[in-house]
Structures are given as structure tokens and as C-alpha cells.
Amino acid sequence: MASRKEALNLEVLEMISIMEKKGAVDDRLGKIRDMNETSNPFPLLELIPTFNKDAYSILREMSVALGKTDLDYGHLEELCSKMEGKTSSIGACRMARACSRLRQATDEKSKDGCLNAFEILKNEYLSLNWMLEWTAELERRILSLETNDP
Fold first, then answer.
1. How far is CA 130 from the centre of its chain?
2. What would the pLDDT profile of 72-95 be if each residue is shown by its tens digit?
3. What one-character DSSP code corresponds to residue 91?
4. Neighbours of 60 (CB within 10 A)
5. CB atoms inside a 10 Å sphere around CB 13
6. Model's pTM, two decimal places?
7. 90 lies in which domain range?
8. Alpha-carbon distances, residue 30 vs 81, 125, 134 (angstroms)
9. Is the backbone of residue 109 left (phi > 0), alpha (psi -120 to 50) or beta?
10. Per residue in 2-58, pLDDT tens?
11. What is the rounded CA–CA span in Å between residue 121 and residue 135?
């Protein structure tokens, strides 16, 4: 069992490394995983689903806001702030940069700029989401091995 667990741990570390090399995340995600607190030895199992759920919800709200004839740029800016907070929780730096572009477009009151920046943000989320989901799945497998290990 230990060798399977070690292999899964290496796979998680490799996935985090890939995300870092792609520039999708900074070193925060790896640091969170390394925390290994006794009260929560698998912090990514809580963080990843929460991040994905919250980010998806904000993106959906942004999409609705951008679909209106008269954009409420202030509301879009608030949503950008929410998303930036979420991205900082895991170090999702490419999503954070996309949020900055969207915020800039809201400052310029450019609907086309907002729509373009939103598409970039959405694509960054989709790209990161599958990598995070796979990382969480690997962590679940490791937890399962630990709970089934005598």
C-alpha cells in the first residue's frame, strides 16, 4: 500500500508542478498541500471543491451581468473583486490576471473589452478546473488508502 500511496503523492506533486510551469498557479497551492495539519491533513480536498464551486458561481453571475443591454460596470467590478479573492486563495495567477483585464475594461466602460476579458477568464477557469479536479481525485485516492490501511 505504501508504494501506491507514494506513487499517488508523486502524481499530485507532478500535477501541481505542471500547473506552476503552465503559469496557471503560483507556489501557493503546493504550500497549502505541504501544510499537512493534523486537524486537516488533506487541505486541498476542502479547498479545491470550494474554489471550483465559488468560481463557477461568480462566472455564471458575470455571464448574466454581461448579457444585459445596459451593463452595470460597478457590479462587474464587485464580481471581479470576489473572483480575485477566490483566485488568491489557491494562487490561480492566470485567472487573477484575467480578472485584472476585466476590471480594466469595467474602468474603461468598454462592453467589448468586458466580453473579451470575460472569455479569457472563463477559459482560464476551464483550463485550471480540470487540473484541480484531477488533483483532488488523486488526494481522495490517497485518503482512501490511508483510511483502509491497517
1. 10
2. 999 999 999 999 999 999 999 999
3. T
4. 10
5. 15
6. 0.89
7. 2-148
8. 24, 18, 15
9. left
10. 688 899 999 999 999 999 999 999 999 999 888 866 667 788 988 999 999 999 999
11. 21
How many domains does the structure of the chain reveal?
A: 1
Q: At what angle do helices 2-21 and 28-35 cross, to 10 degrees?
A: 160
**CATH number of the domain residue 29 falls in:** 1.20.120.160
Helix axes 28-35, 44-66, angle to 10 degrees: 140
Query: What's the pLDDT tens digit per position in 94-107?
Result: 999 999 999 999 99
Cell 476585466 found at: 102
Burial annotation 33-59 (CB, 10 A radius, 16+ → b, else e): beeeeeeeebbbbebbeebbeebeebb
As given in the structure block, the three cell numbers for residue 44 are 486541498
Neighbours of 14 (CB within 10 A): 12
Burial readout 64-95 (b: 16 or more C-beta within 10 A, e: otherwise): ebbeeeebebeebeebbebbbebbebbbbbbb
Alpha helices (runs of H) in the chain, residue ranges in sequence order: 2-21, 28-35, 44-66, 73-90, 93-107, 111-148
Distance, CA of 128 to chain centre: 6
